[in-house]
Structure formats: structure tokens, C-alpha cells
Request: fold
Amino acid sequence: MFYHSSDCTTEMNKITTRQIFKNACELVVSSGKYVKSAHIASTKPSSDNKESFADLVTEYDRGTEKLLIGQLSRCYPAHKFIAEEMVADGGECNLTNEPTWIIDPIDGTTNFVHGFPAYCISVGLFVEKDPVLGIVYDIPNDKIYSAIKGEGAFCNGRVIKCSSTTDLNSSLIAAGFGPQRKTDFLRFKMGIMNTLVEKCHGIRCIGSAALDICHVAAGYIDANVQFGPHIWDYAAAHLIALEAGAVCSAPNGQPMNLLSRKLLVCSTDELKDQIVPLLGDFPLPHD
Reply:
């Protein structure tokens, strides 16, 4: 059962984590069918710009978020929500002790618009600011990464574990540019990539923080460095990585603050200890 403060609703006393997880999985898969419908036609989904010309949003982002919040609200009317398009439209990003769903309706919207097969739906549930379940649906590849706290990490029902890589020289690392196009921020990120690529097997940039982190959980990637994503980009994947045995921290090696928009996910402590001194820092506003 969920454990929570006395001001949480009685429904949480009655419904097991597993039941909520099952309901959420079914809803995410159903929402994924709606996202898939965008590419039945031969034309690209139309998009609008948000904070920059590279920060895209489509009717499918908004529609998927509406579907998810609408159904979850009907099932769990006292729950709170933090969702990407809701915040973009002026809603609060306020993580409290109350049960809170953190949602990215399409992580990797630019990939989605261009038909590049790396985008996903990300849904996580937090209670008392602690993640209790996470679901990341890799739509083009039909892979559902998932975790319930304390029960391990899975992909399509199969147990996944991160790699045992301990040597930076033998590692494959994921990083990303994100939608911001400020020169100093891009130079900072390029500097990190230049430093890392000299010492590892390679750098991969697929354009989805949630999938990058899930790929660490699955052992495809050995580490992921992120500066600039928002809590909805990584809230669900963060739990999946932890349950797969990953080490999650701030890029400076300190404990991770989920609202800080900076994270380092590594397969082992040894790998983390080699990467941290190479990263530096960049000031970012918190969510």
C-alpha cells in the first residue's frame, strides 16, 4: 500500500500500488495509439514554437496530456498533476507531499515531428515527493519501460539491469542539447561532449532524456549526462534507472534534486567517480 501523510485522501488507503500501476499502464498504451495515429498520414505533424524555434509542441502533445490528465483525474480525483503543456500554459510546477502525477505527453517532440523513431510518453507518480511508480512508453519501438518502487525495473515485462561498466574508456555515454539555443549554454554542452568523447567509446544524442535514462537502465548506455531538462522529462525514468541498479546524482556528484534540471545517471559508482570531475556546472533556474 501507499504510505502517506494524514491529509492525503482515503482512496490511497484502499488502492494498491500495483492496481494503480496497471491502470496507468493501460492508459499510457491507449494514449500511445493516439500518438501513433499522427504518422498514418504522409505529412509531418504540424507544430508551434514555445520558448524557442527549436522548442516544439504539437496538437498530439496537448491531446495526449489532456487524455492522461482527464482519465487519471476521474480515477483519482484528489491527485495533483505536474505536466509539460500545463506548465507551459502557466500552470504551477509544485511538487508537494500529496500524490502527484508527473507527465510528459511526448518526450522527444522534435523527433516525433520529423518522424525520427525516438520519442515516448513518460508518466510517474510521486507520494510525499518520493517516486512510487514510473512508466516510459517508447512508442515507435513498442517498448514499455516500467518500475514500481522496490520491485525492480522492466521492459515489456522482462527484468532489466544496467551494465557493470566501471571504466570510462570502455563506456558509451548519452547526452543531449535540448531546445535551448543560447550560445553560452551550447558551448558549455559542447565542451562537456568534447571532453567526454576523448575518454569514452562514443557519445549518443537521441533527443529524449526519458529514453536516454531508460537506455542506461536497460544496459544499452553506460551513463547519461543532462543539463536543462525539466522534471517531467526524467521523473519516471529516474525511478526506472534506480530500480535497475543505476547511480543517480547531480552532475557534481551530490544527491540529486529532481527540480534542479541537472542529473547524472551512471551504471556504477566507479564510472560516476570518473565522469563527475569532467563536467563542470552551468547555472539554471529550477522548475
The two ends are 29 Å apart (CA to CA). Residues 37 and 215 are 25 Å apart (CA to CA). Residues 17-36 form the longest helix (20 residues). The chain has a mean pLDDT of 91.
